[in-house]
Structures are given as C-alpha cells and as structure tokens.
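Need fresh eyes. Consider my entry:
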Amino acid sequence: MTAFIVIVATFGLFALFSAAILIPYLCAMATGRALTWVFQVESDQAASEANELLSPEHLAEIDALVVSSQRMARDAQRRADAWPAVR
C-alpha cells in the first residue's frame, strides 16, 4: 500500500511540474500568435495607406532601390564566396 501511495504521489508531482511548464508555454504561444496577427493586420493597413499616399513616381523609385539593393547583395555574396579562392 505504501508503494502505491509513493507511485501516485510521484505521478501527481510529475503532473504538477509538467503543468507548471506547459501552461506558461501555451499562454506565451497563444499571446505570440495573437500579437503576430495584430501586427500583421496593422502592417497590411499601413502598407495600404502608404500605397495610397505615395505617388507612382515614388513607388517606382522605391522599387528601383529594392532592385538595386538586391543586386548589391548578390554582388557582395559573389565577392565573399570568391574571396578564399583569390588568396
């Protein structure tokens, strides 16, 4: 009978310990997902507002800057990949 009580107490403590870890994790995960949804909605709204406020010339300039940045990043990556071979 004593062994049974020890086993039940051990399982009970294990359940409490698991709940102490699992409940904050689940709350944090739910909070993170909620915040992600809120900020995604806000960023979509902000992007829509920015697109409405910017002129087509400004949007074209932004697109050109993005393309230029991507090209510079590719060139830098190629130089970084070739650097050990040059030495």
The mean pLDDT is 86. The radius of gyration is 28 Å. Helices lie at 2-53, 56-86. DSSP finds two helices and no strands in the chain.
